[in-house]
């Protein structure tokens, strides 16, 4: 049976990963010249931090339950929001910006590539920690064959990932425009709640890079199925949030208070 001590090893690893990311960001800030290369490195660092922590959150969820997992995720989401700067570790934010005309396709593609490199390469670091087997919860996990999280029909899974991503992005846009006092906490709560709601159906990733780093090649899903659910599903949901957020009906429903105040 999992103990608090074993949970402590997971908390330690997550904290250590965040500390390494802080050091890496500061080194990049000091040593790299301003420009695209510097931004690409920040994206890679953010994606590595995200995926490194989420690998360990799998251990937390499996051994301590979804509620404990949710507490960790809620806290980490707030932390990342305060430390990543302009980095997002998420491909569809740049797809949204392409739609808005804010970035070029080339720049977006390079940043998504950097995210994938950071997110996928971090597993060796995670695997090393698991290989040490400091906690019983890590025993056999370093070289264990992974299993896909999709527990529903392929297209239902894509819909769940897409619809939840749409809700997350719309909520973030509303919170940002309203400049809510506790916006980071509200945004984190909404995102965490949606992840928990989808956890037993699609896994609740809502981020293609995260899903690919953690579950690409796992038994239960083909490469095409993975792309449909976690890339097409999430990205379509995110891109749809751009025009939907601008519709008069949506703005009247969620931003009417601000409009009246103006």
Structure description:
With 262 residues, this protein is an all-alpha fold. It is built from twelve helices and no strands. It has helices at residues 4-31, 36-64, 66-83, 91-100, 105-121, 123-132, 154-178, 183-198, 208-215, 223-246, 248-254, 256-261. Helix 3 runs antiparallel to helix 8 (183-198) and helix 4 runs antiparallel to helix 5 (105-121). The longest helix is centred in the N-terminal third of the chain and has 29 residues, at 36-64. The model is unreliable at 258-262 (pLDDT under 50).
Quick overview of this protein structure:
By secondary structure, this protein is mostly helical.
Set down the secondary structure blueprint:
Blueprint: H1 4-31, H2 36-64, H3 66-83, H4 91-100, H5 105-121, H6 123-132, H7 154-178, H8 183-198, H9 208-215, H10 223-246, H11 248-254, H12 256-261
Fraction in helix: over 70%
- Main sheet record: none
Mean pLDDT: 94
- Count of helical regions: 12
Structural class: mainly alpha
Overall shape: globular
What is the string of helix and strand elements? HHHHHHHHHHHH
What percent of residues are in strands? Answer: under 5%
């Amino acid at each position: 049976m999992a103990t608090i001590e074993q949970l402590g090893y997971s908390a330690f690893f997550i904290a250590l990963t965040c500390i390494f990311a802080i050091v890496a960001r500061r080194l990049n800030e000091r040593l790299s010249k301003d420009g695209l290369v510097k931004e690409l490195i920040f994206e890679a660092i953010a994606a590595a931090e995200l995926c490194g922590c989420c690998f360990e959150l799998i251990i937390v969820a499996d051994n301590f339950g979804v509620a404990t997992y949710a507490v960790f995720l809620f806290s980490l989401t707030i932390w990342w929001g305060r430390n990543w700067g302009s980095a997002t570790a998420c491909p569809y934010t740049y797809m949204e910006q392409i739609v808005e005309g804010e970035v070029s396709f080339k720049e977006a593609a390079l940043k998504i590539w950097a995210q994938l490199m950071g997110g996928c390469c971090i597993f060796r670091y995670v695997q090393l920690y698991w290989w040490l087997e400091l906690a019983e919860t890590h025993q056999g996990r370093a070289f264990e064959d992974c299993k896909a999280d999709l527990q529903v029909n392929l297209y239902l899974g894509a819909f769940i990932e897409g619809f939840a991503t749409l809700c997350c992005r719309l909520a973030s846009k509303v919170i940002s425009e309203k400049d809510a006092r506790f916006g980071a906490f509200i945004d984190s709560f909404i995102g965490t709640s949606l992840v928990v709601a989808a956890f037993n159906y699609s896994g609740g990733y809502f981020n293609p890079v995260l899903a690919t780093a953690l579950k690409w090649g796992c038994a239960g899903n083909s490469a095409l199925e993975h792309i449909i659910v976690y890339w097409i599903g999430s990205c379509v949901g995110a891109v749809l949030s751009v025009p939907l957020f601008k519709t008069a009906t949506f703005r009247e429903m969620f931003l009417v208070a601000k409009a009246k105040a103006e």
